[in-house]
Design goal:
- Two copies of one chain form a homodimer.
- The first copy, chain A, contains eleven helices and 14 strands.
- Chain A is of the alpha/beta class and 415 residues long.
- In chain A, α7 links the parallel β8 and β9.
- In chain A, α1 runs antiparallel to α9, α2 packs parallel to α9 and α9 crosses α11.
- The termini of chain A are far apart.
- At the A-B interface, α1, α3, α8 and α9 of A face α1, α3, α8 and α9 of B.
């Protein structure tokens, strides 16, 4: 006899959350978390104090005094940083601060896509991007990659197929620098080729550069957006690359501050779609003040620490999985992409591991062609400390051995 | 010959933003801004320092350690506060922290509505709510109000009409306490009647209580959600009222922290629609720490200051508009709803005023039947200081006189 509110819900909703959150698993190899020890707490306190003293009164106004694109000093910091590090020439007016890069993804999708549209993504890519597209009734097509980035012949073929089918791809989604999940970096030559192919097919590129600050061992390459010759030749409002970045990985994920960089016609049309009256201003104020003094030094330290943890997980994988776990060492970032023998099903492994407080990303969730990638998995090493990484990988190898007989040797860890 | 990115945009987008934001007008009588002087800067600095020292490391994890519903201590503060002040019995598990109440509105609309649906709102209501519904292809129907709230006979008639048309209203949207824009408060009796009518027609209620903390001169009434007898009788998951609140008005609008309160089946289905990996955690941390010690005292001071500014704008309206401006004194909040003689067109007045650095909300934007309300306007007095309020109202009266010959006497202010 009770009122059933669920009858009022609209149709075609994603599955509801099963129960309120309790806690993260001990061996947390999923998500974009980083290490608690790498949060620059003292500097953030100093930045909060200084910025609230100077500008705290401005919290009385939506968007502080900077309007809906977000705190101008932070936009100016981003513009300068991207100029210095990544060859970009955009001013603060081409930058929109967002609630993490995820809001940036949602806004770009809302701007461009309708159900039935087609988007080309790297074959293995951010699971959240695939889920967003599919939830909106958009078809993803996966393009092959090697260690230098997208396979251009395959891309050409896909674009031509879509053109022939009367359904040209709406955009090419790429994570060129520290690709998620492969940890690879697209070469400069491929970046130029990608732009040429996109131009030939009159297609947009959405460049997701959320991990680019976390590159180690090699300098950060210029962004695809910065190499867009169309834009240089025909005017600053004629670019074909929409760019997004984030402070989630470089400072802290729980600070929800990301940004879009695009020509003004794009920003102008996205602003009315951003219906939240601006993203959180306190986080923007604190970041602007913090970054002014500490960004470069902080990134250097963080990257060093992540590189060390990457070496830890590689050593643990070699010890406990041996030759059964194949991977290319990531060039930066917080994750490693592992191929196991075809008999292993990581979707099943994840379900078993969960009962032992181990969380992993099954390959099927992180690829366009899920069924062909059930023997792959993504492990994030950003959050757990080195001991937890070692323990977690050892336990995971044992569970994998129990379930699939792989690896044959499950290491020396007692159950 | 340049690439035209606009060809790739989807159809039926809202109008783009004309140009990057420059600055707010001097006489800013629009928006939910409050007074810079009322931002508790010192206490916010203390709260930021204390909370970052204690929990700053947790920023390394999405959602801190509280998961996607947001920082648990803040949810617990809200649950307690709503219990004490407003008769609610919801636990922290029934609360979802959002990026302002605007994200709460968007999430509820995404949960419930499809194009072609019908929603009943108070005849004069928050312009952003009307715009959201219309942008989604939803029809708004306006229900009449008096100083005690919604006219129940009219509501019954509208619900019956929609039922007869085979298109039952999806929900009733109400701002019962310090109604926007009228500043009225729905009486306890009407709240009970509203629930009875909604029950008789098996309709949901969406209670937007963003201004309820800013009531002066009378105690805050119990929320409609707290009076829902269906929920009490048939189980705690069978409520028909979805509730939202915000800290934008009570602490600071640029802190984007609002919240939804609803039964778990609603929260469970909204969580996967909130695709931003949580709202900003630093703002939640700081608010939780601040509110613990200072919320009640701060609200008392803020309300007193707003009441004073309300008296200032009423005096200025009486001085400069005389009997041509009719209004009921608001019972709290930051705005006053003014009826001018039928010859005045406030949409035109707003356009003229803008050139003189005066911003107002025309009645046509704040009502369901815009054309019948072109002689009304909303003035927000939260942001400008008393002198600016007096000057701005005087100038507005002069401009109104110049354009429409109303008021006959335009005050003693020299042009």
């Amino acid at each position: 006899m009770g009122f059933n509110i669920e009858q009022s819900f609209r149709k075609n909703l994603p599955a509801p959350t099963a129960a309120p959150f309790v806690k993260y698993p001990k061996y947390n190899f999923v998500g974009g978390h980083i290490d608690g020890g790498s949060i620059p707490v003292t500097e953030l306190i100093d930045a909060a104090t200084a910025t609230l003293q100077a500008d705290g009164r401005n919290l009385a106004t939506y968007g502080l005094l900077s309007g809906p694109q977000g705190h101008r000093p932070l936009r100016e910091f981003i513009a300068n940083d991207l100029k210095t590090r990544a060859g970009m020439t955009d001013s603060a007016d081409n930058i929109l601060l967002t609630s993490g890069s995820l809001q940036a993804l949602d806004l770009v999708n809302t701007l461009l896509l309708e159900p039935g549209d087609v988007v080309i993504t790297e074959e293995a890519t951010y699971g959240g991007a695939i889920a967003r597209l599919r939830n909106s009734g958009v078809t993803c097509r996966g393009v092959s990659m090697d260690q230098d980035g997208i396979d251009m012949d395959h891309l050409e073929a896909l674009l031509a197929e879509q053109h022939a089918a009367g359904k040209p791809a709406k955009y090419i989604y790429s994570i060129p620098t520290v690709q998620n999940p492969t940890g690879s970096v697209m070469s400069l030559e491929r970046r130029r080729q990608l732009l040429a192919v996109a131009e030939a097919h009159d297609c947009l590129i959405f460049e997701d550069d959320c991990y680019a600050d976390l590159l180690w061992g090699e300098p950060r390459p210029p962004t695809i957006r910065s190499l867009d010759e169309t834009r240089k030749k025909t005017g600053s409002n004629a670019g074909r690359v929409i760019y997004c970045g984030s402070f989630s990985k470089s400072i802290a994920p729980a600070l929800r501050v990301g940004y879009l960089v695009a020509d003004w016609p794009v920003i102008a049309q996205i602003l009315p779609l951003k219906t939240d009256a601006g993203s959180g201003a306190l986080e923007q104020l604190v970041l602007a003040k913090f970054c002014e003094q500490h960004f470069n030094g902080h990134i250097d330290e963080l990257t060093q620490s992540l590189h060390g943890k990457c070496e830890t997980i590689i050593a643990a994988l070699e010890e406990h999985f041996g030759a059964t776990a194949e991977f290319d060492p990531p060039k930066g970032g917080i994750f490693i992409w592992i191929t196991l023998p075809p008999d292993v099903d990581t979707t099943k492994l994840a379900a078993v591991a969960q009962k032992h407080e181990i969380a992993i990303n099954p390959g099927a969730d992180w690829t366009v062609d899920g069924p062909s990638n059930r023997h792959r998995m993504r492990l994030c090493f950003g959050h757990p400390d080195p001991d937890t990484i070692r323990e977690g990988v050892a336990k995971l190898a044992q569970l994998c051995h129990q379930e699939f007989g792989i690896p044959k040797q499950s290491g020396n860890v007692a159950l």
